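Quick start: what a row looks like.
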Amino acid sequence: MRARWLYRVVPVVGCLFGGLLGVDAIAQHQFKTDGQWRGFGGASLSVTSGNTRSTALLLNLDLNRATQSHKVTLTGTTNYARSNVAGVTQTTAEKWSLNSQYDRNLTPEVFTFGKLGFDSDRLIRLRLRSSLTVGVGYHFVNTREAVVDAFGGAGYISDKFSMAQTIDGVTDDHFVRATLLFGEQSSHQLSPTTSAKQRLEIYPGINGDRAVLVKFNASLGVAITSALSLTVGLIDTYNNKPPPGLSKNDIGLFTGISVKLGAL
């Protein structure tokens, strides 16, 4: 039982690692509003052999384009992993995600945003999760050295499973709910080569299964060269009404290398 739990957790941590690679690259470019695309791309591969054989591959992309009036962000991640224990081969990760967000500045302090996201996870039989969120935010601090924001809004989430699931006493393969959003985020340029950032999002469902989703991540990035950065961080996701057999809380640590893309 302990070994089975470990093989389920390791790919999740790997996905978190790849999904947040390059945070430092983003942080270093977040203050440039010249309308140029910037961001990062990353790939990670892990292979083990011996009593346990495993392979894990993750590809990720994060791009953003900012001007004085608006910002567009595009992110994508795909993760696949397999393990072989005592001659038994199983897939331990097979998921992808694609997200886009548009921010529009109304004043130097106030901004509105719209966010569209798609996710899929074969292991939990999640065929497609679609989410649409709109809201408003406020810059409490917005300087070259630090940004501190608070934001809130409302949205719609649709979960389609490949087979029926029982959630909150309801059995179906399609669950929908309206949700609110409350959150905050901050980023800090601690030195010319070191930056830190964190983000908290709370999605309380207001109808349907009324699930509550909480997402938190924090990271620290250190530049190695003008194009490469070392990133370490923490991410925690909480869902109070997961499908049967899944835990409510999922936490992981990551470390990796990011490569800058786009204009310097």
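That is the whole record. The CA atoms of residues 232 and 255 lie 4 Å apart. The two ends are 49 Å apart (CA to CA).
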